[in-house]
Design a protein that fits this description.
By secondary structure, the chain is α+β, with helices and mostly antiparallel strands. Helix content is 30%, strand content 27%. It has eleven helices and 17 strands. It has helices at 3-13, 19-31, 67-74, 136-156, 162-166, 174-182, 230-249, 254-269, 344-347, 361-368, 377-388; strands spanning 35-41, 47-50, 61-62, 78-83, 107-117, 120-130, 187-190, 193-200, 208-214, 218-226, 275-283, 288-294, 298-303, 306-309, 329-332, 338-342, 398-405. A six-stranded antiparallel β-sheet has the order 3-2-1-6-5-4. Strands 7-8-17-16-13-14 form a six-stranded antiparallel β-sheet. β11 (275-283) and β12 form a beta hairpin. It is globular and about 65 Å long. It starts with a helix and ends in a 13-residue tail after the last strand. This is Phosphatase.
Length: 418
Amino acid sequence: MDRFATAARALHTAAPHALVDTVRAVCADQYGATEVDLWMADYAMTMLQPVTVPPYTAQPVPIRNSDPGRALGSQQPFVCKARYPNPPRAHLSRPAKPLAKTPEAGPAVTAHLPVSVRGDRLGVLSVTLPEGDDSPQALAELAQLADVLAHELVVADRDTDLYLQARRATRLTLAAEMQWQLLPGRSCTRPEYTLGAQLEPAYAIYGDNFDWATTADTLTLTVTNGMGDGIKAALLTNLAVNALRNARRAGLTLADQAALADQALYAEHQGAQHVAALLFEFDLATGAFEVIDAGSPKIWRLRKGVVEPIELEPQLPLGMFEDTPYIPQHHRVEPGDRLLIVSDGVYASTSEDGELFSARPLTRVLSETRLLPATQVPHAVLDALAAHRVPGADSDDAMILCLDWHGRSADGENTHTT
């Protein structure tokens, strides 16, 4: 059995809490690694948190302006030459095998490898190798091993809290805990599209949320904003998202998904509580999509350098009245289009002189970030929003979702190239 297969098998059979110990041991044994670290992207996507044993004494590194952050942002391995680092730290308990002995001095290579699943950026695996052990074949195998680790981390989250805890730069509020557990991920890549999204304040979000699901032929996308604050808003959004999922998984149309969620919310609250929502269903082959505007989230489109809002026929928020009928509208995206969907906490924010963020700043930041990948656009918008808002003013939840449409050619292949 070759060394990559041996390493991958070790990860497949490792206990959920022991994945980092296992990847350290197999990298040392099979590739001669002298140091291995796993960094998890925090909820705000600003820091890379080291996976350590509590009480988490190791220091995080910023995503911006750091070597591991460069790998996370580009989603490509980043290899840098360096002298040997300090001897391997002892913050990971019970490694299966010791790492290779570190020479006193000498050149070394550190490979920072993105740890991602279908475009969802989980973190970075950093592996330091002695000079001579950093062949292109070894680096390619380690990049594949980081992919295997990513899949194992997703499975492990069902059985251990270790990696979820490692992502936290500070404690989540209970409402935020509920909202983050609802999400399908923060990014997703398929040949036909790329999605990137973010919730803020990441550690204290309460009402805003997003959801998506894909089949061979369709992408269903929903953005929701439960009214109110704290736990009440989180509970309301939880009910709406799960009602929409229940209807979607039953094979109902987009209009019926909205109607079922509307009925579920009205049955529980008799109109006293409601949820603003945008519901989409995209045809992956043609780019045609149905959309239902049931509340406050809004859409902007960047097409051939021109930014403009997509005006929709507003309909009632989910749960406001009993048996509300919902009628989809029909639009189409073209290859190269970018859609930006934002909640009212983004577009309705005002500056000191009363200017709405949606008036000019949002258009400007969309134009300025047109060359960034969809996964990086939400943070660019959040940076612009922070500069626009009145300093120190209370702010609403902010939900930002960016969709880049690549399209599919007539033979079924995507038209996107990178």
